[in-house]
């Protein structure tokens, strides 16, 4: 009888110990599989987001939108004219990108060319003064309410960072039009730009988050690491960082 009691006690101790171990694992910090700052990729720990300096205008991760302007006097220090096809009649200022983005653009354009697709940069860097000119012209043509849906006011344009560019096909089919999304070049960019560090910034159906209409031609350089995470999550920068 005594042996049975000892055996039962030992079994109970084992069961209690197993339960406590499993409970501690379930409650351990970092074990939560829920969304992170709105991010669908739950494998990214919270502290990992701190390396993305989204509040510094010199950072390749800076988030610029209608609510997060940068100084209108800001000019990137490392602007270059990348060795890619450019629209010759564009303002020479717009034929520039920051060197990081320019190098990545060259790689991306060459990759597209290898698949018999011809990409052209329609617009890269824009100073606040040039952005003012464009914005004023759009307001005069379409009215301010309409212009604000597709054109940024000075200081709120990603183009001023030197990290964004508008892309078209060499035949200019659907040039800066939504139908560009249905072209071979538009489809390729949507599915491959992230491999070279570029993010489709103004996504379809996300106008309430980005502040702008769908622009299948507008790509923003954020580096390969972040570009891949954004692509995998299907999120905007605002969603990913919970801004």
Label this structure with key terms.
four-stranded antiparallel sheet, Muramoyl-pentapeptide Carboxypeptidase, domain 2, 2 domains, 243 residues, alpha+beta, disordered N terminus, two-stranded antiparallel ribbon, single chain
Q: What about the largest sheet? A: 4 strands, antiparallel
Average pLDDT taken over every residue: 85
Low-pLDDT regions: 1-47
**In percent terms, what proportion of residues is strand?**
5-15%
The percent range for helix content is 25-40%
Number of H/I helices: 8
Count of distinct strands = 6
- The termini sit apart by 67 Å
Quaternary state reads single chain
- Under the CATH scheme, which architecture of the largest domain would be assigned? 2-Layer Sandwich
CATH fold descriptor of the largest domain: Muramoyl-pentapeptide Carboxypeptidase, domain 2
């Amino acid at each position: 009888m005594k042996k049975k009691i000892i055996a039962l006690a030992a079994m109970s101790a084992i069961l209690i110990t197993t339960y406590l171990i499993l409970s501690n694992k379930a409650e351990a910090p970092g074990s939560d599989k829920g969304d992170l700052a709105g991010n669908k990729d739950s494998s990214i720990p919270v502290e990992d987001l701190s390396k993305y300096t989204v509040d510094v205008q010199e950072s390749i991760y800076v988030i610029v939108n209608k609510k997060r302007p940068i100084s209108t006097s800001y000019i990137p220090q490392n602007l270059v004219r990348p060795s890619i096809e450019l629209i010759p009649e564009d303002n020479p200022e717009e034929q520039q990108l920051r060197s990081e983005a320019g190098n990545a653009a060259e790689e991306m354009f060459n990759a597209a060319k290898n698949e018999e697709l011809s990409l052209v940069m329609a617009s890269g860097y824009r100073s606040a003064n040039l952005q003012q000119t464009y914005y004023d012209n759009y307001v005069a043509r379409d009215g301010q309410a309409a212009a604000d849906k597709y054109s940024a006011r000075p200081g709120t344009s990603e183009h001023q960072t030197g990290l964004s560019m508008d892309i078209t096909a060499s035949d200019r089919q659907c040039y800066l039009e939504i139908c560009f999304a249905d072209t071979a070049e538009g489809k390729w960019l949507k599915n491959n730009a992230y491999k070279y560090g570029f993010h489709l910034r103004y996504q379809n159906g996300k106008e309430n988050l980005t502040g702008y209409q769908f622009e299948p031609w507008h790509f923003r350089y954020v580096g390969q690491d972040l570009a891949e995470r954004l692509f995998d999550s299907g999120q905007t920068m605002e969603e990913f960082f919970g801004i």
